Amino acid sequence: MEDALFVHRLHFAFTVTFHYIFPQLTMGLALLIFVMKSIALRTGSAQWNQAAKFWGRIFGISFALGVVTGIPMEFQFGTNWSSFSKSAGGVIGQTLAMEGVFSFFLESSFLGLFLFGEKRLGAKGHWLSSLMMFIGSWLSGYLIVITNAWMQHPVGYALEPNGSYSLTSFWSLVLNPWGLAQYAHTMLGAVQTGCFAMAAVGAFYLLAQKHVEFGELFLRVAVVVGVIAAIGQLSPTGDIQGRLIAVHQPATLAGMEGLFKTQEGAPLAILGQPDMEKQRLDNPITFPNALSFLTYRAWKAEVKGLDAFAENEKPDNIPLLYFSYHIMVGLGTIFIAILAAAAFKLYRGTLYASRAMLWILMLTFPFPFIANTAGWITAEVGRQPWIIYGLMRTSNGVSTQVSAGNAWFTLLGFLGLYGLLSILFLFLIYREIEEGPERHASAAMAPSAPHATMAD
Amino acid sequence: METIWFALVAVMIAMYVVLDGFDIGAGIVHLVVARTDPERRAVIRSIGPVWDGNEVWLLAGGGVLYFAFPALYASSFAGFYLPLMMVLWLLILRGTSVEFRSHVASPIWAMFWDAVFGVSSLLLAVFYGAALGNVIRGVPLDANGKFFEPLWTNFLPGTNAGILDWYTVLVGVTALAALTMHGALWVALKTSGDVSARASRVANQVWFVVALMTVVVTISSFRLQPQLAIGLGSRMWGLIFPIIAVAGLLGVFWFQLRRDELKAFLASCAYIIGMLTSAACSLYPYVLPASTNPAYGLTVHSAHGPAHGLRVGFAWWVVGMTLATGYFVFTYRRFAGKVSAASDGEGY
User: Fold this and answer.
1) pLDDT of residue A451 exceeding 70
2) Whether A112 and A156 share a structural domain
3) Mutate which: B11, B15, B23, B88, vs A, most A CBs within 10 A
4) Chain B closest CA to A116's CA: distance in Å?
5) pLDDT (tens digit, 9 = 90+) per residue, A135-178?
6) Domain count of chain A?
7) Are residues A141 and A271 located together in one domain of the fold?
8) With an 8 Å Cβ cutoff, is B112 touching chain A?
9) Is A37 a domain residue?
10) pLDDT score, position B347
């Protein structure tokens, strides 16, 4: 069973990691597209409208892949984690079903209208459809995060005699304080992904001397929105999350920080590799007392280390937890620096001419994807060995009737299929960027546009 | 309360089959009724703005099944592990082909995605039919409500059956025929000229297969699953569902003769809804019968979720589905009428 458990975990981890590439981009872009459409509606500017539609096309491609890779997620609760689903379905099934009923219908209807219906809807109606897309995708994010939050910090439930969990308070479930903090943090991460993608295309256009006015416009929106999101990511949202973890998941905090020994005035590790045999960090670089201060606002407060927890009460993969957390925080810090510098140059009016800054912005776009993924790995590996924190162990949640061999079979199938989708995605996005925002205006005049398709 | 949820889940699944059914059906007939690139683009355009919304019914139906009947969701999804994963792969390939086919103006690119679209649609119809066949036939549940079926064993229904046996293959073929007809009627309705005429001819020819298979499947279902007769016998009002199915099937024939495309398509919807609701109503209270020991079968009463959750869920379900119906009516009205052969330049 050990073996099958490992494959089932890998199965979910792989499919959800690949899936989340797309929603973080579409949730971020949904906000930016709505901002652009609002400016276009207010000023009547054709350029802003075209810019919004260009990103609408990138949104459309990403959204399609988000949908097709998202369906397997909902299925896997039942296929690979049926014991968990049987026990917890009465609670978390609520929020998952609400996602389908409230946000997927909204998103899919209005995305169709946004992509295919500008002429039929008029300017106001088209703006409204961008608003509905934004609401739909952010609501979808909320319901998923709140589902995860229940697994991190269960509230509003009762244990039934048959061993399953029942909902006792709907509002505690949907207003779980853990979930509110996690949602704010997650969405700011998605906004940064969208902003860095937009900034990268803008920087590329300026460096390549193509679609220059659009490049400047993209940079302006991306840098202004991005710098706000990047700062909010660290504080207050990251800080609140950290302190929630310290209170409710102290073993997770010790693992994330690589704190092996309980101590007063605990240091904050910046670098160093956890050595699980010797129970220490190799070549550490630390800020003395900083972890105590960040956690408890007192320099000499005691912070529990990994030695304070029994073996089966703490995460089973400390190095992965430690590194994913440090990658997330490290990249987040770098994003603040890059965006603050870019915002300063934008304010001074020198951004568009600063080749070094443009190069940096063009090349940074993959890193928010990594930071967001690392953040989710921190949350999920940090929750171990629990599938519902403190209530149900991950090893008790798996589908015992599905053998390791069958799980390997489908995992390999997903690996192959998702490999193909990755190539396809990069190819199609590259083509959109290459053709640029002006393509649509000319295509609309031609009697038959080669690209107008599914959605036309 | 759990009976209400049983009815709601059944309705959502039926809605999914009717709606995604026509775009799957459009995929099945795609290669046959549309020969040139503009013709094929017209077929894809006829489902372009709506197929994704149609598929949401699967997600929403699955989500509602999850919280209303957690034990059923857990048992059936793990037990049908292999076919469900293959359905997922097919849905991924199909969605990708619809969305990306026209992004590159190359005949090779388009031909490849057309073939993927056609084949994945065809296999999906067969898989959905086989899945329904498994639920009607019953699965080898143990005392804990667990089972696991390999893809096939000896192709015989029984306690050792796989996903595919002669009966479930029969249901699969019936589903293929029914969705082919359904999709052909949709394409006939939404396109014009040669494509519409060819699709209408396909629908007429396949109608006879559908009629024959409906009779064969009905007889074998009653012989294989005694619960159907018991269920129907105890709820004679349930005869309304098979009557709807037969009326729908005859309606397709009648309206095709009179060349009323819209009514023929709606009659096909009625046929599909009638068939699915007949099965659901006759199986009730079973939601997943056992082929091993009837007492192991999952029923509405043994598989439902906790009571408070079901009541709370009902409140938001009514609100959410009212909104969703609103969007649907709005979208379908915006895209009403036949698609034109020439592109109107919108899309992405």
Assistant:
1) no
2) yes
3) B88
4) 5
5) 999 999 999 999 999 999 999 888 888 888 988 888 989 999 99
6) 2
7) no
8) no
9) yes
10) 53
**Inter-chain CB proximity A451 and B105 less than 8 Å:** yes
Compute and round to an integer the Cα radius of gyration of chain A.
23
When pLDDT is averaged across residues A326-338 and rounded to a whole number, the result is: 94
Q: Which range of residues forms the domain containing residue A246?
A: 2-255+314-445
Q: Tell me which residue in A400, A402, A451 faces B347 most closely, judged by beta carbons.
A: A451
Q: Where are the domains of chain B?
A: 2-224+305-334
Q: Give the pLDDT score at B223.
A: 87
- Does one domain contain both A287 and A419? no
Q: In this predicted structure, what is the pLDDT of residue B63? A: 87
Same domain for A97 and A205, yes or no, is yes
Specify the pLDDT at position A207: 94
Question: Which residues 34-53 in chain B show a CB within 8 A of chain A?
Answer: 38, 41, 44-45, 48-50, 52-53
Question: Which tokens in the block code for residue A437?
Answer: 């925002």
Contact (Cβ atoms closer than 8 angstroms) between residue A112 and residue B328: no
Q: Which pLDDT does position A237 carry in this prediction?
A: 87
Tens of pLDDT, residue by residue over B289-347, are: 888 888 888 888 888 888 888 888 888 889 988 998 888 888 777 777 777 654 444 55
Same domain, residue pair A77 and A17: yes
Interchain contact, A160 vs B335, CB within 8 Å: no
Shared domain for A246 and A279, answered yes or no, is no
For the stretch B258-267, pLDDT in tens is: 988 899 999 9
Rounded distance between C-alpha atoms, residue A414 and residue A15, angstroms? 7
Answer whether B55 sits within 8 Å of A87, measured CB to CB. no
pLDDT tens string B82-94: 999 999 999 999 9
- Mean pLDDT for chain B? 87
Instruction: Please give, rounded to a whole number of angstroms, the shortest distance from the CA of B227 to a CA of chain A.
Output: 26
- Determine, yes or no, domain membership for A455: no
pTM as predicted: 0.90
Indicate whether A286 and A196 sit together in one domain.
no
Domain identity same for A334 and A377: yes
**Residue A454 placed within a domain:** no
Interface test with A, best of B327, B333, B346 (most A CBs within 10 A): B346
Least confident of A91-100, A375-384, A399-408, B152-161: B152-161
Residue A309 lies in a domain: no
Q: Which of residues 324-343 of B touch A (CB under 8 A)?
A: 324, 327-328, 330-331, 334-335, 342-343
* CB < 8 Å to A452, chain B: 102, 343-348
Q: Give the per-residue pLDDT at A456.
A: 32
